[in-house]
Amino acid sequence: MIDLTKFYVTTPIYYVNDKPHLGHFYTTLIADILARWHRLKGEEVFFLTGTDENSQKNVKAAEKAGKDVKQYVDEMASIWKKTWEKLNITFDDFIRTTEERHKIAVYEFLKRMIEKGDIYKGKYVGYYCVDCEAFLTKSDLVDGKCPIHKKEPILLEEENWFFAASKYKQALLEYIEKHPDFIQPEARKNEVLNYINTGFGDISISRQSQKWGIPFPNDPSQVVYVWFDALINYLSGIGFGYDEEKFKKFWPADVHLVGKDIIKFHCAIWPAMLMSAGLPLPKHVYAHGFWTVKGEKMSKSLGNVVDPVKLAEKYPLDAIRYFLIRQVPFGEDGDFSEEALVERLNNELADELGNLVNRVLTLAERFNVEIKGRPELEKELKLEEIDKHMEKFRVDLALAEIWNFVKACNRYINEKEVWKLKGEELSNALYNLLESLRILSILLYPFLPETAEKIRRMLGIEEGQSLNDCKFGEFKWKPKKGEILFKKIKAY
Ligand code: ME8
Predict the structure, then answer these.
(1) What is the number of structural domains in the chain?
(2) Can you tell me the distance from the alpha carbon of 151 to that of 8, in angstroms, rounded to the nearest whole number?
(3) On the chain, which terminus has fewer CB atoms closer than 10 Å, C or N?
(4) Does residue 285 fall inside a structural domain?
């Protein structure tokens, strides 16, 4: 169940060893769409994103760039933040794990775990993939290499601080059982259960060999393990340890959006950490699939990434947003190609939505009649279904349902041959079509914000409509045709 008054959504905090690629944009875009939707519902929304800066990957990248690590992460964090701004992402805060507020939260969190008796000193011996920043077991390896990064892991032997995570194994299994929609989509749940049942043990949460990171409390010879500190961003970003009121207002998160690569951390380790610190668990974790290019995961380490900023210089940003949401069922993998993007832009955005808006406004301008009538098109609008999909984070299904309405409006024009109508019938048809466009300008706003805004302006209606206004009624439009919404692209 979603809290009716607040909505807290997060993205992973991304490593800053490179700039954002389309995969990162995808997760962040979904969070943006959900945040905009819940704002339309009048809820108090908090949308957090940020950067994971205490990683060895960042240290290596700084060395490669010949820069001081701090200077490097500062520059990169600024690139990430500016990229999201450029790409019209409406985050409410941007947490960086090198910030003081984050350190305060990590220390408060660790203090609670220490008081609980869950932290002890032990010896760690095992494989470690620096690109994953994670331990691997022998069975994880394929041909002796990390299956994701295709690199040999290092063998690590250290005296570390450990979290007695195995204490929470049973409680975790029970929690997942009792909260069937905690891990989504359903298919991912088995993967997590399998991990908890077979691979879940105590976790080393400090590093002796590293200098870059948050010093371990009362043991400055070690730094906090980067994943351990990173997960706490979801709390430090909303005031944990320094703004209790804000923290109480927004925690627990309504949804952590993540890629399927980091599900174990979010659905097993993080919940166990929260149980230890005596805090409620997030309501949902939604793990989506990977964007691939020619079947291979798009990734910084594989070097096959698509740059969303460059893409947005070539295509309208709303077309990219639309494509990413429509192209794959949310949760599954999808292959990226410009060809497929252009196809959707031409066939759906230009031919269906663009054409609809253009036709209705042309008719409204041509026949300057009084606009009133009976709400005939309202039955085609499945608002409840759309909202249900959004409550289940199925942005893809919600947008498909909105698109059915776009198609229904086009059908209405064709079937009625509106351009031939006269008098009351014409007035009625224009009423239905203009009201439909007004409602579309609200519903499309989370998905295609620039386009929705253009439609609103062409209709001559005021800003600030909410989901409550998505019903047919009386309206004072001042329709005026504007620019074409989407120009078709011939070559790409
Ligand atoms: O894992 N397709 O950061 P990261 C879809 N810092 N999404 C993709 C993707 C792809 N090909 N590649 C990346 C980390 N992503 C940690 C997270 S959170 C406490 C710490 C997205 O920079 C997806 O959301 O490697 C994935 O989980 C995330 O970027 C990994 O980003």
Answers:
(1) 1
(2) 36
(3) N
(4) no
Q: Which residues line ligand 1 (CB under 6 A)?
A: 12-15, 23-24, 26-27, 52, 230-231, 233, 258-259, 261-262, 290-291, 297-299
* DSSP reduced 3-state for 157: strand
**Within a domain: residue 113?**
no
409 is a catalytic site residue? no
Told to judge if 121 belongs to the known catalytic residues of this protein, a careful annotator would answer no
The two structure tokens encoding residue 12: 């992973």
Q: How far apart are CA 104 and CA 137, in angstroms?
A: 33
Own/partner pairs, 438-441, CB within 8 angstroms, 24+ separation: 438/465, 438/469, 438/475, 438/477, 439/381, 439/405, 439/469, 439/470, 439/471, 439/472, 440/353, 440/402, 440/405, 440/406, 440/409, 441/465
Highest mean pLDDT among 196-200, 207-211, 220-224: 220-224
Q: Is the pTM value of this prediction over 0.85?
A: yes
Domain extent, residue 372, equals 337-469
Catalytic residue among 38, 41, 57, 146: 146
Does 108 score more than 80 pLDDT?
yes
pLDDT value of residue 328? 95
Query: Which CATH number belongs to the domain containing residue 452 in this structure?
Result: 1.10.730.10
From 256, 266, 297, 389, active-site residue:
297
- Place 492 in a pLDDT band, splitting at 50, 70 and 90: low
CA distance 168 to 196: 10
pLDDT exceeds cutoff 60 at 453: yes
In a domain, 367, yes or no: yes
Residue 24 catalytic? yes
Evaluate if residue 2 carries a pLDDT over 70: no
- CA of residue 289 to ligand 1 center, whole Å: 10
